[in-house]
Structure formats: C-alpha cells, structure tokens
Recover the amino acids of this structure.
C-alpha cells in the first residue's frame, strides 16, 4: 500500500504500525509523488493525508478516482462534516480524523483490504432491470453502459442486488461497506447513494431503481417496466 503523509514523525509511526500488522507501506511526502507512484505501481490501498504539499489529498483522490478503483482512506486533521462528505463525494472509501488510534487505523485498513480481496465462492452475475453486477469481475453495467464504481459503491450495489426489493437501513449498508464506527454516519451512505444514482439512473433526480424508503433507508428495484 502507499502512505502519503508529509509529517515525517507521523509517517514513520504509521509505517511501523502497518509493518507490525504484516503490511508493506511505501511512504511519500507530497501529492505529486503520490499521484505519480499510484499511476506507476499497482497498490492495493492508498492512505492519503488531506493536507499534502504540491497536490492535496482531495486533488489526488479526485484525479485517481477517474483512473482507478483502488481503495482510498483519507487522513485529516479536519473534522467538519462538509470535509468528510467532500472526500466521500470524490470517491474515498473511508475517512479518519486526527487524532486517531493507530490500532483503529490498522483495523480499518484490514477491513478495506479484506473487502477488496474477498471473492465469492461462486461467481454470480446479478441482473435487475437495466442493472447488471458481476461480482467476480467487479463489473457494473446500466443498460449498455459500463459503470465505474468505488469499492464502497460496489459493496452497496452487490449487497442490495442479491436481495432485490429488500429495504436496507443506513446502518446495515454501513456494515456491508466497512462496518459501523464512531465517525461513520448515515450521511456517508447518503453520499454513496447520490453518487450511484448519477451513475446508474437515467434521471438521478427521479430514480427508478435505487429508491429511498423514507424514514428507513434504501432499496433496489427492477425499475419501470
């Protein structure tokens, strides 16, 4: 994985924790280097500090998300909800605010990697209306259009399309993405759903498949016949 952190002491402390947990981390200190190395090497996870020099973590995430679905965990001293939602809107899969427990960070990393590396025993291809989700190849299509999803968005779609018509609460969907933790809220899922509607719905303002069940959560339907 790659760790982009410009504070040398913080970077070294995180690298040691990750190494002790059995991970290998390439450390970089600025956004331009992070972007270049992410393009040159096949990392399985990116840890991006928001306040990086040259290019900040948000910019790096935005650019890479157009090119790759590698999982991204944002690290920041900012705690405002707007910053959290902006990071998710750009395609980040998880978000931690400083100060945080290194043990919790390692747990988040483990969860993200497990979700990406785990493949189903069978290789189901699910179809519902215009939507197709191929779990084995991690492919999504809406009609004849290929859809690029982040790891979190794919986890939500895969969970919902296995049980079409079932209403999922926000807490349940969080469990399918990365589990419930002290920073995640229902707003996290709302942002993922908003982004998914932009990608799979003909008219995101009037969704036909990814529907809101007011006061409860969301469900996936076949859409208009």
């Amino acid at each position: 994985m790659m760790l982009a952190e410009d504070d040398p002491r913080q970077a070294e402390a995180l690298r040691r924790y990750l190494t002790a947990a059995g991970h290998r981390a390439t450390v970089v200190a600025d956004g331009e280097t992070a972007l270049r190395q992410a393009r040159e090497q096949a990392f399985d996870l990116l840890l991006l500090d928001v306040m990086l020099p040259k290019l900040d973590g948000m910019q790096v995430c935005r650019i890479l998300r157009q090119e790759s679905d590698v999982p991204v965990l944002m690290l920041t001293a900012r705690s405002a909800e707007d910053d959290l939602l902006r990071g998710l809107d750009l395609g980040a899969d998880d978000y931690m605010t400083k100060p945080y427990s290194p043990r919790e960070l390692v747990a988040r990393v483990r969860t993200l990697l497990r979700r990406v590396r785990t493949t189903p025993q069978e290789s189901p291809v699910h179809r519902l209306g215009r939507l197709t989700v191929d779990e084995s190849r991690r492919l999504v299509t809406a009609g004849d259009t290929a859809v690029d999803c982040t790891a979190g968005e794919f986890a939500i779609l895969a969970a919902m399309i296995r049980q079409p018509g079932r209403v999922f609460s926000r807490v349940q969907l969080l469990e399918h993405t990365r589990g419930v933790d002290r920073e995640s809220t229902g707003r996290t899922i709302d942002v993922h759903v908003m982004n998914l509607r932009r990608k799979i719905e003909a008219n995101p303002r009037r969704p036909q498949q990814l529907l809101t069940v007011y006061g409860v959560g969301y469900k996936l339907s076949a859409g208009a016949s």
